[in-house]
Amino acid sequence: MTASNERSEILAAQRNDDSFSTLFEELEWRGLVHVSTDAEALSNLLEGESFTYYCGFDPTAPSLHLGNLVQLLLLRRIQLKGHKPLGLVGGSTGLIGDPRPTAERTLNSRETVAEWVGKLQAQVTRFLSTEGENSVRIVNNLDWTAPLSAIDFLREVGKHFRVGTMLKKDAVAARLNSDEGISYTEFSYQILQGFDFLELYRQYDCKLQSGGSDQWGNLTSGTDLIRKVEGVSAHAIGTPLITNSDGTKFGKSEGNAIWLDAEMCSPYAFYQFWLNQADADVIDRLKVFTFMSRAEIEDYARQVEEEPFRRAAQKRLALEVTTLVHGAAATQGAIDASAALFGQGELSGLDAATLAAALSELPTATGAEGSSVAQLLVDTELVKGLGEARRAIAQGGVYVNNAKVEADDAVLAAGDLLHGRYAVLRRGKKTLAGVVAA
């Protein structure tokens, strides 16, 4: 099956849950509405005739991440209701970047931003249907901002914004109170995003914008501008920022975002991220990141309560989201790698890329044919010293590629280096490390 056909099958299988009386009710149950414009009017809009709506994605990196996935799935749920999505990739706003809480962004070159625009456009398209009367349309705000002169922009758009209101926006206020302050460039970002909504309203009769709740000030800059200029009401949905039950930011691993691009976050690492979700968080993740029904999710909630040791909900979550993002084959490869690493499958059956990705998540040491296994145990910090390494081997608790090491003077043989480069060390049942040939 081609990637295109698989993607079509994944999209075709997605459904909204008809156990809810309205889509807005389902969105609230899934925890996707932190703040919105008039809830009753918005619910009626979603239940009415087909209309156009959008979400913007700035090319500040060469890939989207899990926070963006929340928006993509919200767009898809609304598309399944029959409405028409616009995926805006910000070729102009990406040249500036929305204000971060603490410091100015480093501005990327025009060439870099243009390259990233293309990559993000392709990613957005993968999660939304490109078929039918409500197929996704990809737009770039550089198309309508580039032709404007600074004078035209100030006269036609800037005059509708009040500085006092702009200063009250959370992102701006946070920066004003920081040591870094805020430049006029980033201060102006909310005007550009507001102008996007106005332009999309004019071109496509776009009536709704979604985004993270931390973007609420930028979202309402658009609804306010449309009301002032066109005299009509537009809508916005702010999704909650997804956090873990302990309050830490979701989607961060040692300071790095969980990217949707397989080259930036391997399918194996992606799968493991979901598999390791805490019991306290996993049901909320199923609600947000899968199209599973309310009945299915409530059954998994019961299993988490009654049989948490089975981790059934985590396994289903990892399967669903990894398949959604990377496809069935890559997901199966991640599952096979997980099993093989812990002695439940053949490591030799893993392709080099999957094995390399799996080992990148483990402590590793450099080794070669003839390297002492005991020394490699020390080098990978599976043990504290050679004496402990020899005792572990003597007790029968050390494995190379799932084969028990029998002698304390054992060395790596040529055949131990899978794909000529990799070996897996295991101490006991669950403690793993990798060996990579120089």
Task: Give your account of this protein's structure.
The chain has three domains: about 240 residues, Rossmann fold; about 120 residues, Orthogonal Bundle (Tyrosyl-Transfer RNA Synthetase); about 80 residues, RNA-binding S4 domain (Structural Genomics Hypothetical 15.5 Kd Protein In mrcA-pckA Intergenic Region, Chain A, Roll), CATH 3.10.290. The chain contains 20 helices and 13 strands. α4 links the parallel β2 and β3. α11 packs across α12 and α13 packs antiparallel against α16. Helices cover about 45% and strands about 15% of the residues. It is elongated, with a radius of gyration of 25 Å. The protein is of the alpha/beta class. The longest helix is centred in the first third of the chain and has 17 residues. The mean pLDDT is about 95. It has a six-stranded mixed beta sheet with strand order 1-6-5-2-3-4, with helices on both faces. A five-stranded mixed beta sheet has the order 9-13-12-10-11, with helices on both faces. This is Tyrosine--tRNA ligase. It is found in: Cytoplasm.
Radius of gyration: 25 Å
Which structural class best describes the helix and strand composition? alpha/beta
User: What is the approximate shape?
Assistant: elongated
Give the DSSP E fraction (strand runs of 2 or more residues): 5-15%
Low-confidence stretches: none
CATH class membership of the largest domain: Alpha Beta
Described by strand count, sense and barrel closure, the largest sheet is:
6 strands, mixed
Could you state the CATH homologous superfamily of the largest domain?
A: HUPs
Number of domains: 3
Q: What is the CATH topology classification name of the largest domain?
A: Rossmann fold
For the largest sheet, list the strands in their spatial order: 1-6-5-2-3-4
Give the helix level as a range of percent.
40-55%
- Total strands: 13
Note the total helix count.
Answer: 20
| Reported CATH architecture of the largest domain | 3-Layer(aba) Sandwich
- Mean pLDDT across every amino acid position: 93
N-C termini distance: 37 Å
